[in-house]
Amino acid sequence: MTVTQLDPIALACDLIRKPSVTPADLGALDVVERALKDLGFQVKRYRFEDIDNLYARHGTKSPNFCFAGHTDVVPTGDLTQWSVDPFEAALRDGFLIGRGAADMKGGIAAFISATARYLTRNPNPKGSISFLITGDEEGLALHGTKRLLEAITAEGERLDHCLVGEPTNPNALGDMIKNGRRGSLNCTIQVTGVQGHVAYPHKACNPIRALIGLLSTLQNHCLDEGVEGFQPSNLEVVTLDVGNPATNVIPERATARLNIRFNTAHSGASLTNWLQDQASQTERLYGAKIELNIHVSGEAFFTQPGLLTQIVQDACETVTGRRPELSTTGGTSDARFIKDYCPVCEFGLVGATMHQINERVQTRDIEILSQIYEAVLECYFKLA
Ligand SMILES: [Zn+2]
Question: Pick from 131, 90, 92: which is nearest to 109 by CA?
Fold first, then answer.
């Protein structure tokens, strides 16, 4: 074992210095691989299309506790607005500044150093520790966690519990664990009517009437009033486009796009059916042709509070004195794929600056998070 593995800050710096903007890896997973190999992990790399992924396991016994996350990062944005080079891993006034510091190279460094310390004290845990690390979380997520899980499962691997290290705390370490996420559906609506003169509407069919009628029905419908662990689902129209430069022409076409964030009262399929039904009724009512293009980017999921959430809450409270609340707010994450394999929850750094210019975390927080993860391992192998 080297000093680096025990020092999460040095590890986080090493990771940030690899500018792994999705889909590039540029050596980020090599840092993880080297550190885990030194700790006695069996490490395997998986390349799917242009994406590098990694699965590593220490031990062969059950249960298998998995740390999951990603080494890819979002683009820097306007470089002139950064106060430091985003890939230099600058340490300033107690902060580590750089792209990925919060989301989530700092979290991965904390995973590794926690594991290193735990294994030093417990060389033969009662089960296995594994790492599931992808390079495709910030992108389309087509060749990352989803395929990696399929591949390792086909090889006989089984995860029993999984902790994702996304930055889940809004303001301070100990605020929040995510034990579920809402699903997300995008829909493009294209209405085609018949173009004509505004003074002769009987000779035309205005697609905007049908579109307004449909959108009004959709957004006035109450999807639900919230279910266990979740706020109500919501539908938001995000754009309406006609682009008609004339004042005296009924246009032929009108389009709109909407997004639905939904809880476990719905599925992508049930919402797709509902949207298609409403579109058919509107077509009959207005005589215009309506085409829907629907993409479900993630299903909703909920991990019942239980062993896993309690261990993470207890570990956090032991280390920080603060007991994080369970929440299902925010966007989607790769936990949406993991939930099909084992109970999963998410807990990581403070996410206030994720994806922003000058993304940063307190170095102290990375150290404390590493202690929390170590306490999670301690507690897990005592109870499981
Ligand atoms: Zn992330």
Answer: 131
Given this model, what pLDDT does residue 330 score?
84
CATH 3.30.70.360 given to domain 183-298: yes
Alpha carbon of 359 to those of 20, 55, 205, 226, 268: distances in Å? Answer: 15, 27, 51, 33, 33
Token pair 């369970």: residue: 326
DSSP one-letter string for 9-74: HHHHHHHHTS--BTT--TTHHHHHHHHHHHTT-EEEEEEETTEEEEEEEE-SPSPEEEEEEE--B-
Contact 56, 43 (CB under 8 A): yes
Centroid of ligand 1 to alpha carbon of 193 (angstroms): 43
Domains of the chain, by residue range, sit at: 3-181+300-383, 183-298
Q: How are beta strands 128-134 and 64-70 bridged, if at all?
A: parallel
Q: What is the CA(319)–ligand 1 centre distance, in A? A: 24
Given a contact cutoff of 8 angstroms between Cβ atoms, the answer to whether 244 and 251 are in contact is yes
Q: Which CATH number fits domain 3-181+300-383: 3.30.460.10, 3.40.630.10, 3.30.70.120, 3.20.20.300?
A: 3.40.630.10
355 alpha carbon to ligand 1 midpoint, in Å? 9
User: Sign of the C-alpha dihedral, residues 2, 148, 110, 98?
Assistant: positive
* Residue segments in the chain with a per-residue pLDDT below the cut of 50: none
Give the model's pLDDT for residue 2: 56
* Catalytic-labelled residue, pool 137, 160, 252, 365: 137
Does 365 show up as a binding residue in the annotation?
Answer: no
